[in-house]
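Lecture 7, part 2: worked example. A protein chain together with magnesium ion.
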Amino acid sequence: MPQPNLKLVTTKETAPAISLKGFQAWFGESCVVQDLTLELPANGVTCIVGPSGSGKSTLLRGINRINEDITGYSMKGQLFIQDSCAHTGFKDITELRAKVGMVFQRPCVFPCSIKDNVLFGVRDKSLNKLERAALVEESLKSAALWKEVSHRLDSPAHTLSLGQQQRLCIARTLAVKPEILLLDEPTASVDPASARALETLIKKLKDDYTIIMVTHDTRQTRRVADNVLFLCDGEVIEMGSCDHMFSKTAKQKTQTYLSEEFCDC
Ligand SMILES: Nc1ncnc2c1ncn2[C@@H]1O[C@H](COP(=O)(O)OP(=O)(O)O)[C@@H](O)[C@H]1O
Ligand SMILES: [Mg+2]
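Predicted complex, written out as structure tokens:
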């Protein structure tokens, strides 16, 4: 079993955001994420890369326990969010997902207004009208969407472009004040200009959030990642700082994948 490289970029002397100990993910009899023991640092962007089917999404979805809604899914091992066990350390799944928000490959806006989309996950009933309006503004500003939608907050969310919808999904996730953001190929279904805008946003958000992002785009990885985790066939081939993975690694598989997006393992 290859051991993850530990030369990671850490920006703060804080506990890891996510710790996996012997983590495995299964669909039926098939083990698709194999025995991962690693720590993902707090703050900054960790990109999870690897060929299609290597278990990137399953790992990401395992972290906020979305996989558990799928029939046939099971996991083994331990998963910690900061110091709390993901299975026993939270009051319920809503509390866990308030700390660990997720944005998917295809923007998933709800059939209501832009404003109501932002507030969708906000459970704090004590907020008055003014406070809710302030939260909408703050979340949309953080997601770099406010300027484009401030005059039409009551318009249906589906009238936005795909790139705007993806930023709305990010605003909705930020509105519940998470600490960790899981992004599964967040730019894959938007046009190149929107993808660049999202990358700029991700680089800005990383100062305040821990971002764990799946991408199959190695040029994007080079632009946004502080750390890179390379998965293949459900195993970690190598993990390290972006600089290490792109320029200094001695592992042939990492070199080949990051230069050619190809892996024969
Ligand atoms: N709902 C599911 N049921 C059964 N197998 C699944 C399911 N989702 C994913 N898999 C399998 O798990 C493996 C990893 O998939 P995934 O995590 O989506 O890979 P990646 O995101 O790296 O492309 C693949 O072999 C895929 O076919
Ligand atoms: Mg995937």
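The mean pLDDT is 91. Residues 18-260 form a domain with the Rossmann fold fold (CATH 3.40.50.300). Keep this in mind for problem set question 3.
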